[in-house]
Amino acid sequence: MSRIAFLLGYDLLEPKLDRRVLLEAQSCVARGHTVEVLCWARRQPFRELTGSYEGVTFHRLYQKLSAESRPFPLKIPSYLALVRQMLRRLAVFNPDVVIAADLEMLPAAVTGRLFQRYGLIYDSHEDWPAMEAQTNPALGFATKLLERTLLPAVDAVVTVCETLALRFRRRGKECRVLLTARTRREVESLVFRPRAEVRRELGFSPSDVVVGFVGNLQNKRLEMLIEAVEFVHQHDSESRLKVLILGGPTNVREALATHAVASGVAARFVFHPIVDYRQVHHYLQTLDIGIIQYNRVLWAHLAIPQKIIDYFACGVPVLTRNFRERARLVRASGAGLVFKGGEPDQVGKVLLALEASKALPQLRRRAQRAFTEQLCWERQEPKLLALIDALSATRHLPQVN
Questions:
Q1: Domains of the chain listed by start with CATH number
Q2: Is residue 136's pLDDT more than 70?
Q3: What is the chain's mean pLDDT, rounded?
Q4: 19 alpha-carbon distance from chain centroid
Q5: How many CA atoms lie within 13 Å of 118's alpha carbon, on the beta-carbon side?
């Protein structure tokens, strides 16, 4: 089989596990390939250089950066030193295929290809230029130009949505959409506490309709959810609508709780600290509706939050704003509702209608079916493995003199 190297611009495990890269690497290992993840452990305390996590071998590279506040051009020498480290490690590993995880690793991957004849896959996790442009328009333009300049050296692209995929296809690149999702095996192996028991512990009654957001609360515009519930309370004080907000950071959660008190709807809310990822499914299953963040950013119409798929995996339908890609996914699944605009009363009206419709049991079944039949990792990995097989075969063709 082949040797596959992943280039990652941060540590695979710390401060947060990169599930997408781990899933891709595990699929390659299961296929019989030899895999190494080269990860740049920037701004991380020194740990073991080489290790293994759930069957995936990784190698850490340490390269100090200038202070984050320094201008981007002053960080270039440190980045070039990192590239030299990566090239030395690639020369030792001698990969057949390299997968560059996002734009910041693409220059290193393209440079290495000048010296080693490997196949190159660009894994575009998001619209990187748009993310940079959100805070620095000049840097956004520069990264857009960088991506266009390097793209001709790439054999194929995997990305996270059809809109981005179409952009790469227009530039002549073979591109597959690869969603980050739990495996069906993982979900089927989960042991759930009784749903009624967890809901009771949280303070919800059997007749409550529980809306929830579980995850990182920072910059998610969840204040609008509080305002939407205020609308519900004003228009139907007998509504059984309740809300679970679970996550951190603590100061954001406490600020949201204060907002709920000031709005007069604190009795409808439960605020819960963040829990270990391995315990999240117990809380997800308590929800009748999962909420996706509302905030508009330049790349919002492209993003499909992994949270949608996590909700579906636990049989939870989704309510989302009409950002293009996430709205397309929810509508295609039939397992949720999409609201237009960003006004709290629009969300409140949808919640009232959903509570009155008695459609939640059917939506729950659709959510579970969408995960199993369309979204789970077992439905995603064949697209990646087919690309790797094709590129590996090309590299192993005999040379014609």
A1: 3-180+377-395 (3.40.50.2000), 185-375 (3.40.50.2000)
A2: yes
A3: 92
A4: 8
A5: 28
